[in-house]
Write a structure and sequence with these properties.
Layout: E1 4-8, H1 13-22, E2 28-33, E3 50-53, H2 59-66, E4 71-74, H3 88-108, E5 113-117, H4 147-164, E6 169-174, E7 176-178, H5 188-195, E8 201-202, E9 206-211, H6 212-225, E10 231-234, E11 237-240, H7 241-252, E12 259-260, H8 263-275, H9 288-294, E13 297-298, H10 303-308, H11 316-329
Parallel strand pairs: 1-2, 1-4, 2-3, 4-5, 5-6, 6-10, 7-9, 8-12, 9-13
Antiparallel strand pairs: 9-11
Amino acid sequence: MSQKILVTGATGFIGSRLLRKLLTGDNDVHALVRKSSNLELFSDIADRIHLVEGDITALDTLERAFRGMDQVYHSAGYTYMGGGNGKDGLLYSINVDGTRNVMQAALRTEVSRVVHVSSITAVGMSQKHGKLLDEASPWNFDGIGLRYAETKLLAEIEVRKAVDKGLNCVIVNPAFVFGAGDVNFNAGRLIKDVYHKKMPFYPLGGVCVVDVEIVVEAVIRAMEVGRTGERYILGGDNLTFKELADIISGVTGTRMFMMPLPYPLAKVLHSLLVLLHSKNRVSKLFNPTMFRVASEFLYFSSEKAIRELDMRTEPIERSIKRAFDWYKKERLL
């Protein structure tokens, strides 16, 4: 049966790949866009998508956009993994207030079902090598200063409030996502910087990684069979940053010497690079907040998603290879 579906964040990495996957059926697919939105990521399929003007920070536009929709995928969000720099306002406005607006609009317009795309940062840090967190783990990012993680947690609280009011909503928590279409170089920044030999050192922690196509397939399954009010971690391999850098080096054919860098030394080195106006000589990922997080172990179990959503798995090398080939094809490297 055909569904009338709307995707927020459709111009982003996960949202644009989600649009493509939804079009493989007979669904009536709509994308929420602003007047200023860049539609480049789905320009080749734009004629098959209904563009609906709206903004998640403006509740009235969402109510107009959601009216008559059967399903809403809320993948809009603002990603900033640094600290300070005046980004807090945007993070809270888009991630927290925007999610509250989406939930309220869905309730008011009686949308049948919503999937909220969150993040593993809303779950927590495992901190210890080998320890895997699951959906019930306590959040413990407080004290690190990663406002992004805080806003993703607060957004989930807004979702749970809406579920308590009767909204049929499921939460998914993607890990560190690689794949074609990452034009903003989120996880893809690692590929770019290893390729250009801008990572002479690596943090001592690790992270859970996953391919974007696996994520969007699981997001759709969450809409189909996920349990209301539940969260599902969408991850894959749990790797140290050294292991991840080695995989990227192998895929890109780039070899360089990399040395381990403990967080206390990273703070000193970063200050020195700022003093010498040499920050641009190393990866943009090298900021104190991001390096602090990367010195911990963000390791997660995806067993619940594998069991309940039939989420598939594959070695991350394949995803990195697809992303690298796409970057070269699009001349983004």
